[in-house]
Write a structure and sequence with these properties.
A hairpin with a 2-residue loop joins strand 3 and strand 4. The chain has 5 helices and 5 strands, in the order ααβαβββαβα. Helices cover 44% and strands 28% of the residues.
Length: 170
């Protein structure tokens, strides 16, 4: 039953991510970015990208972020090519398999490769001060007075606006 669940790639990534937290600390997070030759069509480039992720999985890796693939214009030519497909993904791998994966990614179809050990950015939480005030019995009459004054001022402004409309409208 578990093997059936692991066939679904999304479920497999979620389940393996939960399992990786209890594993030893030899696993590291790597970000892999590479440029694919523009000779491929969009579909072939996506297939190639999937093959690279499958290689990482075969070496015991766990895909942390699926990444994306986009065709980009290069700022300078690489092997006389001015465009390439930019692809990236993040994978959690044991240290010893990271070098193996890096060597396997050195293919003719890949123009440039960036293989970097990284770490996950912590989620930042912001604490806000509570806006509630404690109103004592001594403060209540003052608060009521200020609220009444604000209401009177508002009604006076409305009356002035009506008079101005009457004067200007006539």
């Amino acid at each position: 039953m578990v093997s059936d669940l692991l066939k679904n790639n999304r479920l497999r990534n979620q389940l393996t991510y939960a399992i990786i937290l209890s594993m030893d600390k030899d696993n590291k997070l790597y970000e892999i970015v590479y440029l694919i030759t523009p000779a491929f069509t969009e579909e072939k480039a996506l297939d190639f990208h999937q093959k690279m992720k499958n290689k990482a999985l075969q070496l015991g890796g766990i895909i942390d972020h699926e990444g994306d693939i986009k065709k980009r214009k290069l700022s300078y030519p690489i092997n006389k090519m001015t465009e390439a497909y930019l692809a990236y993904f993040r994978v959690i791998l044991p240290k010893e398999n990271a070098e193996k994966l890096k060597n396997e990614l050195k293919l003719n179809e890949i123009l440039r490769l960036l293989f970097v050990q990284t770490r996950r950015n912590p989620v930042r939480t912001f604490h806000t001060k509570s806006a509630t005030k404690v109103i004592t019995e001594e403060m209540a009459p003052k608060i009521i007075e200020t609220a009444e004054l604000q209401h009177k001022n508002q009604t006076q402004i409305e009356e002035i606006d009506k008079k101005l409309e009457e004067i200007l409208g006539a």
